[in-house]
UniProtKB/TrEMBL annotation:
Transmembrane segments: 20-44, 56-73, 79-102, 114-137, 143-166
The name this protein goes by in its record: MFS transporter
Source organism of the structure: Alicyclobacillus fastidiosus
UniProt cross-references to Pfam families, sorted A to Z: MFS_1
Principal location class: membrane
InterPro entries from the UniProt entry: MFS, MFS_dom, MFS_trans_sf, Sugar_transporter_CS
Membrane topology recorded in Swiss-Prot or TrEMBL: Multi-pass membrane protein
Keywords, sorted A to Z: Membrane, Transmembrane, Transmembrane helix, Transport
Record localization: Cell membrane
Domain Major facilitator superfamily (MFS) profile: 1-169
Length: 174
Protein backbone atom coordinates (compact mmCIF):
# COMPACT_ATOMS: atom_id res chain seq x y z
CA UNK A 1 0.00 0.00 0.00
CA UNK A 2 2.86 2.38 0.75
CA UNK A 3 4.29 1.81 -2.72
CA UNK A 4 0.99 2.65 -4.38
CA UNK A 5 0.24 5.64 -2.18
CA UNK A 6 3.62 7.35 -2.48
CA UNK A 7 4.16 6.34 -6.08
CA UNK A 8 0.82 7.78 -7.04
CA UNK A 9 0.08 10.82 -4.92
CA UNK A 10 3.54 12.37 -5.21
CA UNK A 11 3.29 12.28 -9.01
CA UNK A 12 -0.41 13.01 -9.36
CA UNK A 13 -0.08 16.74 -10.12
CA UNK A 14 2.49 15.93 -12.83
CA UNK A 15 0.29 13.17 -14.27
CA UNK A 16 -2.68 15.53 -14.49
CA UNK A 17 -0.48 18.24 -15.97
CA UNK A 18 0.78 15.82 -18.62
CA UNK A 19 -2.84 14.94 -19.41
CA UNK A 20 -3.30 18.58 -20.44
CA UNK A 21 -4.58 20.22 -17.26
CA UNK A 22 -3.05 23.48 -16.13
CA UNK A 23 -0.87 23.40 -13.01
CA UNK A 24 -3.56 25.30 -11.08
CA UNK A 25 -6.27 22.82 -12.12
CA UNK A 26 -3.96 19.84 -11.45
CA UNK A 27 -3.19 21.02 -7.93
CA UNK A 28 -6.85 21.85 -7.31
CA UNK A 29 -8.01 18.43 -8.46
CA UNK A 30 -5.38 16.72 -6.30
CA UNK A 31 -6.47 18.81 -3.32
CA UNK A 32 -10.10 17.78 -3.82
CA UNK A 33 -9.06 14.13 -4.19
CA UNK A 34 -6.90 14.33 -1.08
CA UNK A 35 -9.78 15.67 0.99
CA UNK A 36 -11.53 12.31 0.50
CA UNK A 37 -8.83 10.72 2.64
CA UNK A 38 -10.28 12.11 5.88
CA UNK A 39 -13.70 10.44 5.56
CA UNK A 40 -12.01 7.28 4.25
CA UNK A 41 -9.86 7.05 7.33
CA UNK A 42 -12.72 7.83 9.69
CA UNK A 43 -15.07 5.35 8.02
CA UNK A 44 -12.53 2.55 8.32
CA UNK A 45 -11.78 3.46 11.93
CA UNK A 46 -15.47 2.99 12.64
CA UNK A 47 -15.86 -0.15 10.49
CA UNK A 48 -13.00 -2.11 12.09
CA UNK A 49 -15.04 -2.29 15.29
CA UNK A 50 -18.41 -2.88 13.63
CA UNK A 51 -17.51 -5.04 10.67
CA UNK A 52 -14.09 -6.46 11.54
CA UNK A 53 -10.47 -5.63 10.85
CA UNK A 54 -9.82 -8.05 8.03
CA UNK A 55 -13.10 -7.44 6.22
CA UNK A 56 -12.57 -3.67 6.38
CA UNK A 57 -8.99 -3.94 5.19
CA UNK A 58 -9.52 -6.33 2.28
CA UNK A 59 -12.58 -4.44 1.08
CA UNK A 60 -10.72 -1.14 1.12
CA UNK A 61 -7.69 -2.69 -0.58
CA UNK A 62 -9.62 -4.23 -3.47
CA UNK A 63 -11.69 -1.09 -4.00
CA UNK A 64 -8.52 1.05 -3.96
CA UNK A 65 -6.96 -1.31 -6.50
CA UNK A 66 -9.95 -1.05 -8.83
CA UNK A 67 -10.03 2.74 -8.41
CA UNK A 68 -6.30 2.92 -9.29
CA UNK A 69 -6.83 0.94 -12.47
CA UNK A 70 -9.85 3.01 -13.48
CA UNK A 71 -7.97 6.22 -12.73
CA UNK A 72 -5.19 5.14 -15.09
CA UNK A 73 -7.76 4.46 -17.81
CA UNK A 74 -9.82 7.62 -17.20
CA UNK A 75 -10.42 9.68 -20.32
CA UNK A 76 -12.46 12.58 -18.98
CA UNK A 77 -12.15 15.14 -16.21
CA UNK A 78 -15.22 13.77 -14.43
CA UNK A 79 -13.88 10.23 -14.50
CA UNK A 80 -10.46 11.38 -13.25
CA UNK A 81 -11.99 13.24 -10.33
CA UNK A 82 -14.46 10.48 -9.40
CA UNK A 83 -11.83 7.73 -9.63
CA UNK A 84 -9.34 9.95 -7.77
CA UNK A 85 -11.85 10.55 -4.99
CA UNK A 86 -12.54 6.83 -4.64
CA UNK A 87 -8.85 6.01 -4.84
CA UNK A 88 -7.99 8.53 -2.15
CA UNK A 89 -10.90 7.45 0.06
CA UNK A 90 -10.16 3.73 -0.13
CA UNK A 91 -6.37 4.06 0.14
CA UNK A 92 -6.70 5.81 3.48
CA UNK A 93 -9.43 3.42 4.58
CA UNK A 94 -6.98 0.61 3.83
CA UNK A 95 -4.26 2.34 5.85
CA UNK A 96 -6.61 2.75 8.82
CA UNK A 97 -7.51 -0.92 8.62
CA UNK A 98 -3.88 -1.91 8.23
CA UNK A 99 -2.69 -0.28 11.42
CA UNK A 100 -5.06 -2.15 13.69
CA UNK A 101 -5.07 -5.38 11.67
CA UNK A 102 -1.28 -5.68 11.39
CA UNK A 103 -0.46 -5.01 15.02
CA UNK A 104 -2.96 -7.64 16.14
CA UNK A 105 -1.39 -10.35 13.96
CA UNK A 106 1.51 -10.65 16.41
CA UNK A 107 1.49 -12.03 19.95
CA UNK A 108 1.89 -9.40 22.67
CA UNK A 109 5.55 -10.24 23.34
CA UNK A 110 6.44 -9.68 19.68
CA UNK A 111 3.92 -7.00 18.78
CA UNK A 112 6.27 -4.00 18.71
CA UNK A 113 8.95 -5.89 16.79
CA UNK A 114 6.46 -7.35 14.32
CA UNK A 115 4.82 -4.01 13.67
CA UNK A 116 8.23 -2.35 13.38
CA UNK A 117 9.36 -4.82 10.73
CA UNK A 118 6.07 -4.48 8.85
CA UNK A 119 6.31 -0.68 8.94
CA UNK A 120 9.96 -0.85 7.87
CA UNK A 121 9.15 -2.92 4.80
CA UNK A 122 6.37 -0.47 4.01
CA UNK A 123 8.87 2.37 4.15
CA UNK A 124 11.04 0.61 1.58
CA UNK A 125 8.07 0.71 -0.79
CA UNK A 126 7.49 4.36 0.13
CA UNK A 127 11.08 5.21 -0.76
CA UNK A 128 11.26 3.25 -4.01
CA UNK A 129 7.86 4.14 -5.44
CA UNK A 130 8.47 7.80 -6.36
CA UNK A 131 11.66 6.88 -8.25
CA UNK A 132 10.15 3.92 -10.08
CA UNK A 133 6.99 5.87 -10.93
CA UNK A 134 9.07 8.78 -12.21
CA UNK A 135 11.09 6.42 -14.36
CA UNK A 136 7.92 4.77 -15.72
CA UNK A 137 6.47 8.19 -16.53
CA UNK A 138 9.71 9.05 -18.32
CA UNK A 139 9.63 5.99 -20.57
CA UNK A 140 6.05 6.86 -21.59
CA UNK A 141 4.43 3.45 -21.08
CA UNK A 142 1.07 5.11 -20.62
CA UNK A 143 -0.97 5.78 -17.54
CA UNK A 144 -2.94 2.57 -17.88
CA UNK A 145 0.28 0.59 -17.40
CA UNK A 146 1.52 2.68 -14.49
CA UNK A 147 -1.77 2.61 -12.64
CA UNK A 148 -2.13 -1.03 -13.64
CA UNK A 149 1.08 -1.63 -11.68
CA UNK A 150 -0.49 0.08 -8.67
CA UNK A 151 -3.52 -2.17 -9.15
CA UNK A 152 -1.33 -5.28 -9.30
CA UNK A 153 0.64 -4.34 -6.19
CA UNK A 154 -2.53 -3.72 -4.20
CA UNK A 155 -3.94 -6.99 -5.52
CA UNK A 156 -0.89 -8.89 -4.24
CA UNK A 157 -1.36 -7.27 -0.82
CA UNK A 158 -5.04 -8.17 -0.92
CA UNK A 159 -4.25 -11.84 -1.63
CA UNK A 160 -1.67 -11.93 1.18
CA UNK A 161 -4.10 -10.48 3.73
CA UNK A 162 -6.93 -12.77 2.60
CA UNK A 163 -4.81 -15.91 2.79
CA UNK A 164 -2.49 -15.25 5.75
CA UNK A 165 -4.13 -12.81 8.12
CA UNK A 166 -6.75 -13.72 10.66
CA UNK A 167 -9.61 -11.70 12.12
CA UNK A 168 -8.99 -10.44 15.64
CA UNK A 169 -12.09 -8.39 16.41
CA UNK A 170 -13.64 -9.59 19.63
CA UNK A 171 -10.84 -12.09 20.31
CA UNK A 172 -8.34 -12.22 23.14
CA UNK A 173 -5.02 -11.56 21.41
CA UNK A 174 -2.68 -11.74 24.39
Amino acid sequence: MNYTYYGMFLWLPSVLSEKGYSLVHSLGYVLVMTLAQVPGYLTAAWLVERWGRKKTLVTAMILAAVAALLFGLANSTAMLIVCGLFLSYFMLAAFAGTYIFTVEQFPTVARATGMGWAAGFGRIGSALAPFITGWLLGVHLGYGWIFGLFFAILLVGFVIVVTLGYETRGKDIH
